[in-house]
Specification:
The chain is an all-alpha fold. 74% of the residues lie in helices and 0% in strands. Helix 7 runs parallel beside helix 10.
Length: 335
Amino acid sequence: ELDAVDCAPRRRYDLEARARGVARRAALPALSRALAAARDGDQALLLLNCAKSWLGRAEATLVDLVTGADFELGRFLERCVSAECGADELRWQLAGVAAVTFAEACRRGREGEDDADGPALASCERFCARCRSLVDRSAELTRSGTLDGEAAASECAKHVASVAAALSSSIHGAQLCLSFGVWELALAATAHPRRSVGVVALDAWLDLQDVPVDQRHASLGAPTYRRVLDALVAQCAASRNDYDEDEADALHGFRESSQDVLVATYFLLRGEYSATLGRALGNALQAVAAGDAAAVALAESALFALRAAKREILADLAKAGKAAADPAVRDALET
């Protein structure tokens, strides 16, 4: 209840320093032992939520979780996201809290920790790989129409997506651009059938733009951004599924949040961006003419993606003294 204490700034500073000491010397070691001995999921969830609060009070970072006094807690978080959750809502909740706890620690990096040694970054790779499996299993549950555990799984996937966003913006972000696990997780989350999950991962792609291309993993080039573009176009297409509670709001929110990512994707793909969307638009229009009403949504989504980067595309065409070769693209840009 320290945050509710009304006192002078100096007194608060002293209280917070004492709380950090209590957290590191007593609370976190005790909670680590209690979690290791927890007999059921309800008890583990209660303890893990408590540990999350004390980790914040201790200002514990990723390096602390992986190599410091909180090492056992870090291992427990890994076990939580490694579990086979199935339709067990409690396991999904545990994995979700573990992901949030890990993400919060990533955001609390201290000066000098950007040169973290191997164990911290290796832990990120393992954690992201396990988180990606959770996202994949959650997506399968959603697409299958399975009701048991699906809501808890989607909520967990949302928390897991925050791990990619937290890592990309953390003090370790530049180093993690030389690995690929974070971005595979971000891509899987971006493509999740619930847009409320996908939208959380978009910040990771924006953060990546701050890192020069030659300082990224070799895989973070055109092939990956083609997959990003495919995922964004699919998510921006109006559909008749009931994956999102409010389809119209979810679509509008995702489109609004994705525009900067689409522009960033254009800057990496350049001409391939408009060519890909031109083909998608042309194929969709042909399908519509053949009587496929569902293709209208794909055509409209391709148009949206083209127009999101309209200014950048037209500037490049003007610089080259050209017009768009594809008539569908030209019409989309000129209207």
